[in-house]
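Subject: mismatched residue count in predicted assembly?

I count 760 residues in my input, but I want to confirm that the predicted structure covers every chain. Input:
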Amino acid sequence: MTESIFNNTLVVFLRNQDRIGRERFPLASVNWDLLIRQARRANLLSRVAYFLQESNQLVHVPQKPRIHLQSALTIGKANARSVKWEIKQIYSVLQKAELSFMLLKGAAYAHSGRTSAKGRVFSDVDIMLPAAKIEAAERVFVHNGWIPANFDVYDQQYYRKWMHEIPPLRHLKRQTNLDVHHTIIPPTSNLKPDVEKLWLNAEKIDGIYVLSLDDMILHSATHLFHEGEFESGLRDISDLSLMLQEFNQTDRDWKELSERAYELNLGIPLYYAVHYSVLILHTPIPQTFVKMLEHDNSSYLKTKIMDFLFMRALMPDHISCDDFFTGFARWILYIRSHCLRMPIYLLVPHLSRKAWMRLTGKAMH
Amino acid sequence: MYRIFLDGELLFNSYVGQGIIYHVESANTHLIDAFAFDILSIIDKEPGIECGDLMSKLENRSVNEKDDSKDYLLSVLMALQKIDLLKLKE
Amino acid sequence: MSIQLRSLPREEIATYLAANGLKIQIGLFTLSLRSSIPAIVEHLHNLYGDFKLINDPDVFIDWYVKIDSPSVLRRFIRPQIQFSFDGYQPFEALPKDQACAMLEWGLNWCIANNSNQFLVIHSAVIEKNGIAIILPGTPGSGKSTLCAALVLRGWRLLSDEMALVNVEEGLLYPVSRPISLKNQSIDIIKDFSPDANFGMSTKDTAKGTVAHMQPPDSSVMNVNIPVFPAKVVFPSYIKGSATKLVPLDKGKAFMKVAENCFNYNVLGRVGFNVLTKMIDHCDSYCFEYQYLEEAIHTFEQLNND
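Triage response: the counts match. Full output below for your records.
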């Protein structure tokens, strides 16, 4: 029983994404009901649809599931279009103020044409500026139609004082969300990658900075394994798997990736990213490299414990992919991520307030 | 002297006295009057047209006396640029 | 051979709902519904009697939906219900007595958010003699009241909430379901047609008092017959108004319909093309009215044009 949730229909499909419809993975073998439901809950329905279309197999899917996939494909295309336009608007206002900026996460994948942009649904645009420029950027945005996304005084304080960020912004007319950062993980966290090093290796595309592929992989890994939001856990693993495959195609030495990780003090997130990408999606990464990372960053016992927790939390958030321990695993990892992000004296009041908001139904989903 | 271009791909649909323009890149849809619609149609056929040439082409089409003035034309061009449908290059 | 929901006794409906789900055909869509709430059993038995059940286990299910208490605690203390779409909850929980209204809102949400094979217009749609009329509905337009009255006078109900215009063909696809009415409209329609079958009224919802009227069996039977839209009428219920039907120019009609679409922007250029063709082929009007009988008369005339 436990085995089957880790070999659910969606992960099996993703493992076979480049041979859909061929002998080793015929379309007739796919349980469309489970695939669509799991993919929808995992935020991967558009990506599944993209893979089917790219392999020219979408037309061969039975009619009723095909309609759902085409609908998701339409949403994926609308998202790609909308994020591109949003990036253009952000560039336009910051450029007038002579402020350079870097795109992060999904928006960066889209702008740089990464495979991890495929079928991605973008809820926010994340950008980064040097710490000294954040206030100026905030003024530019507020002057050009952006407003704070929520007015809760506690949340505003949380962002400014403890997370050292400006609170999320929302463009009034376009109803789009913008997060402005000056580092890639909260400064109160125990990991402290040197942001200067990220800027030094950054690439500039059409006037906008993005992280190098190596740093994108590390950022994605850190975000997933240290920030505890698993609603898109499998989607993030899928992004990582696609980027690791892109790295593979550059024919560079894998050691360059681990060396960069150690340079930025992000060895542990890289180990998790590689380990789970291989375990869940069978990403083709040399075993020697995986073993080396495990040796440097983990122990046998720790691996076993984290596998128990992460394997469950990274499965689609769907009833067909839950076992008895799944809820517990997600909860433990949620607490862990907060411990990693905040010192304990901040953590308790923050968590208890979040719990109160949920209980009284006031939390935003 | 300005040369005038459409700012990205536009889709057109005309009705009597007005028209609908769809801007593909932003997915914005606009309802505009016949004069503005004619301007965009001409530029679509002749990208990079200069203001003076545009004006002479319009003289044949427009019925409103006001439409003949260059100032009015420029104000319409500015308005269209503001809603991302046109760009003016020197 | 499919059977109708009314052929099942209440106990059996309740059993399916509590176990693996009651599978129902709603227009082109297939639904699997789970619930342990007695009011839902009653709602289905009363208002969904003509709907076909799905016996074949191989039929692909579009929407897996559940309407139930969000937690054991909330079953007893200030009882609440929650609508969930295969594990996802689009709304906040509501008081338990709003279960039926929540189910209907939830089904509207499923269709509106996941059906990009259609241009989905927030509107009522009715049809008679092959003339299909779309009634886009801004709040206060009285579209639901008008829709209910017309349907009670022989017009086919395609939907009271959503016009589904297929993007490939331009055809309107029916999804006839119980008509949702609010506040005074409930009494107006009950007076207009005392035989009309209504479910329970739910008070104190975000929209006031809400009740649902059973769709005519002929509408449900003909749910597989699509039709091209012929007219677009923007209704406005205005007290003291003389009945007035005024042609609306196509440019304005296009923009007003686009504003009333759930997914016009998502569809991109496809949405533009579909809506262009629709507005090109349809006559569009603004319609002011106060009296239902006069309104119906106007629509009958429209039908004869």
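Confidence is low (pLDDT under 50) at residues 361-365 of chain A. Marking this ticket as 'not a bug'.
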